[in-house]
Amino acid sequence: MHTLTHALDIQPGEMVAFVGAGGKTTTLQRLLIELRAAGRTVLTTSTVHMFPLKGVPAHPFVIESDPAALAAQLPGLLAETGHVRVAGEQLRVDKIRGLDAGQVAALKTLPGLDNLLVEADGARHRSLKAPAAHEPALPAGVDLLLIIVGLDIIGKPLDEGHVHRPEQVAAITGLPPGAIITPAAVAAVVTSPVGGLKDVPPGVRCWVIATKFSYDTGPVGGELASAVLGAGDPRIEGVVLLGAGPVEQIGSAPMVVAKW
Which residues, at least 6 apart from 256, have a Cβ–Cβ distance to it below 8 Å? Predict the structure, then answer.
């Protein structure tokens, strides 16, 4: 079976950031499990609100905003457990604030750390979004940007019930409110300099990850991949159609990679 780590050529020392909508946390968890299986140490964090991870091996969850305290605690925890999740502040029982972008950037050079995985965007559980003026919250030092979108958004109406920030999506695509979302429209959003590629620093490798891939969504997934690659932006190295759940639910190809 293919792995995301291999497909995306994630090297030790790299920071991976996740933006977009429709499966950022799920994709992060898949990468985390792969990296740990390969023997790498991993920090996971966020520059937006965050939650404990589910479905991954037990690990320390450090809530600490002081950089000096983090620098003192994290190397030992990484050496002991291999994975640490880091947040900045517990705001409520059900709400945890991530770290500031500057704090995340400083974590990249921690002794003993192989990879840093960072959620840098929020989407309120929708499968498509375009960023507001203050989004995304990308830290300095990102090596690989994963632009996430859920394939289940294709065929749905452009409205607040299905899209986060539908007015921005309408502005990018030219679709009127309530219009049916097409693969071409999704490709326009994820490849736009005010959409998926907003504020991407020079030299950052970018991939589009289309989640919720299955036999049902396979045809539109292929259309989306063709449209994304056809946009011709050299920063986007490829597209992954990523299935969820047991392999038998999505046939023999839980992951399909299309690249230049």
Answer: 213, 221, 225, 240, 241
Q: Which of these, 194, 193, 191, lies nearest to 208 by C-alpha position? A: 191
Q: What's the pLDDT band for 232 if we cut at 50, 70, 90?
A: very high
| Cα–Cα dist 182/114, whole Å | 39
Domains defined along the chain, listed by start? 4-41+119-259 (3.40.50)
Which tokens hold the place of 166?
């539908």
CB 237 within 8 A of CB 206: yes
What global pTM score does this model have?
0.93
Q: What is the CA radius of gyration of the chain?
A: 18
The span from the CA of 35 to the CA of 16, in Å, is 12
Structure tokens at 149: 């979108």
Q: Residue 55's CB: how many other CB atoms inside 10 A?
A: 8
